């Protein structure tokens, strides 16, 4: 310091800003430390993700987490694809306890007559409607779905997988409808058509479950379709009526 010069003390960093800096620095460390073994990297990523969630969400919403610790009362059930790019909680901003979520290949719902063949999704639907008493079920499809691409390019008597090709047979009616409606289109456009057709097929299969149909007819449950396009960053929504007809589509 030169003679006669004075320096004002550095301003204190707000605790929130300090936390952000700490998290950013921690992100950098996790990325930079390539000396971790694959197993250690998994642990570090999980630890970092949880600590970030705890600091930014869990500790900042004590009332919410006290409530959900007692019981869950979700208003929504969401049936979505397992694709890593289309997490419905992230895309639609659901809070903890707000949505009961089921994810599978190509967001498919088996018809009731196949419920015992594919009991996982069917059991979740039964639990959501009969026990949790959800008020709305939404089936969400998405752009560039690998399951739909597999369905659209499936060849007779050619087995490319053990389980996937059996599962996507649920969507054969959607494939047929898409090929008919988009016969003169290229594969990508046909897949887009099938992605949307499969949503309505899943909604139709949902409505065929007696307990779902009864809840809809009694006014206790509504069915909805959604299509997330992560290429354009858009979301298409429509209501699926008790008569099996779709309402007007809204685009966000």
From TrEMBL:
Catalytic reaction annotation: hydrogencarbonate + H(+) = CO2 + H2O
Keyword Zinc (UniProt): yes
Record flagged with keyword Cell cycle: no
Required cofactor(s): Zn(2+)
Lineage top rank: taxon: Eukaryota
Annotated positions binding Zn(2+): 81, 83, 142, 145
Cofactor notes: Binds 1 zinc ion per subunit.
GO biological process: carbon utilization
Pfam family, one: Pro_CA
Keywords, comma-separated and alphabetical: Lyase, Metal-binding, Zinc
One GO molecular-function entry: carbonate dehydratase activity
Family of the protein in this entry: Belongs to the beta-class carbonic anhydrase family.
Cross-referenced PANTHER family: BETA CARBONIC ANHYDRASE 2, CHLOROPLASTIC, CARBONIC ANHYDRASE
Functional note: Reversible hydration of carbon dioxide.
Name of the protein this chain belongs to: Carbonic anhydrase
Native organism taxonomy: Eukaryota, Viridiplantae, Streptophyta, Embryophyta, Tracheophyta
